[in-house]
Specification:
Chain lengths: 221, 205
């Protein structure tokens, strides 16, 4: 194990050991700022995004790609394409519950990779499955809503500056976190310009996404 | 599921660039074969359009490139992500501007580079017909089609169309078809031939 991998593994272990934070009850209703920001966390309807993706991989490797994502929240559908900066498509898959891989170039050609990627996209863009079980304030004073679906707990946290964090726990161990900046994307898009995903798993990784384009739903185009 | 495992992404990226450069800086292969040293340096701006069925309009990237025979290359994207591929004196490096400044892309393995460099050198010498990977066909005076010979490569790139300019040594456009849902169009502008290029262009980000 190299010198970079060990500290990463230790950090992943320490972070993933922390369970969901305590929620302080909020007296009264959620402030209007929360109400304004919350609907923007998960885009409604038919949307297409192009992101520049920077991946920090296990062992200190780095990779750069372009990602094209089509989501349809009503139909629960995802179509995801990863390509090189030169435009060569490395991975093309769709999911509507079942995953169909249209094209995959090694090392992106495993079912595990496809499943992990679709899971990450779903966590970024779709409302969590399950019921809301708690809501209130975090210790730091951010607004939080907690959803639970069997062994999975998902927290949606909206910070005072408008940025938001999504944390996903499995059996109370942190598995993924996503931080979305408060900056708006290019062209007046109502979506964050930056998204950072951290996967706290054995071969942990981080993805830094920068919004290049956001296409509106066809009906509003 | 359609998977391709014979070619690593790094090798494919370089082949991709090699194919773009197989533009054969002349409008007649025979002419190139007779005088392979006619074009020694090329500079050009390019616009890359990525057409996907998924997108209502193509994704646009812009950049510049420099080539000097026998094997020096700078292939630089300026938008939307700044990225520079440098090849010079057998050394290959790729730099990308990430969230924390410019970083060397460790995803590009030198071993794969060495193999592909040989292919690039072959393309750049105008030697299309001897390349075992592609079958070349002249469609018209200004259009050449390249079709992969290797079935593994055909799964990645179906065909390439080169559109040559009326000006000898200049290419107007390249289309790289990957599937029925995806192709890349490269449009070259401001092409300059045989102008001096400083060596640092192939060495520095």
């Amino acid at each position: 194990m190299n010198r970079i991998a060990l500290p990463i593994l230790m950090a992943v272990f320490l972070v993933s050991c922390s369970g969901p934070p305590k929620i302080r009850p909020l007296i009264g209703q959620f402030p209007s700022q929360f109400a304004k920001t919350y609907p923007l966390v998960f885009p409604e309807g038919d949307r297409r995004f192009v992101h520049a993706i920077e991946a920090d991989l296990y062992g200190g490797e780095k990779a750069f790609m372009m990602g094209v994502t089509h989501i349809d929240s009503e139909k629960n559908k995802i179509h995801s394409i990863l390509m090189t900066i030169e435009g060569l498509v490395l991975f093309d898959a769709e999911s509507d519950g079942e995953i169909r891989i249209n094209r995959a170039v090694a090392p992106f050609d495993s079912e595990n990779f496809a499943g992990g990627l679709m899971g990450d996209v779903r966590l970024m863009f779709f409302r969590p499955e399950g019921d809301q079980v708690e809501s209130g304030l975090t210790e730091a004073g951010s607004w939080i809503r907690r959803f639970r679906n069997r062994e999975e707990t998902t927290d949606i946290v909206i910070h005072q500056d408008g940025s938001r964090t999504i944390r996903q726990y499995h059996r109370n161990r942190l598995r993924r976190s996503i931080h979305a900046g408060s900056d708006q994307g290019p062209g007046g898009a109502k979506f964050p310009e930056t998204l950072t995903l951290n996967a706290y798993i054995r071969s942990g990784y981080s993805l830094h996404l920068k919004l290049v384009e956001a296409e509106p739903a066809p009906a509003t185009r | 599921m359609k998977t391709v495992s014979t070619y690593s992404p790094a090798r494919i990226i370089l082949l991709f660039i090699a194919l773009v450069l197989c533009i054969g800086w002349t409008n007649a292969w025979e002419e190139m074969m007779e005088d392979p040293d006619a074009v020694t340096c090329v500079k050009a701006d390019f616009i890359q359009e990525k057409h996907l069925k998924l997108l209502s309009r193509p994704l646009i990237s812009k950049g510049v490139f420099f080539f000097q025979s026998p094997g020096s290359l700078r292939w630089e994207y300026q938008t939307p992500v700044r990225s520079v591929l440098l090849m010079h004196k057998g050394k290959v490096e790729r730099y990308i501007e990430g969230s924390r400044g410019v970083v060397r892309d460790s995803g590009v393995k030198l071993q794969a580079m060495q193999v592909v460099l040989q292919e690039i050198s072959q393309f750049l010498s105008g030697n299309f017909q001897d390349n075992p990977n592609f079958k070349a066909e002249v469609i018209s005076d200004f259009k050449v089609s390249l079709v992969p010979e290797d079935p593994a490569m055909e799964k990645i790139i179906q065909r390439i169309e080169l559109f040559l300019s009326e000006t000898p040594g200049v290419i107007d456009e390249v289309k790289i078809f990957e599937s029925r849902d995806s192709y890349t169009r490269l449009i070259f502008e401001n092409t300059r031939l045989n102008e001096t290029i400083e060596e640092r262009i192939f060495q520095e980000m």
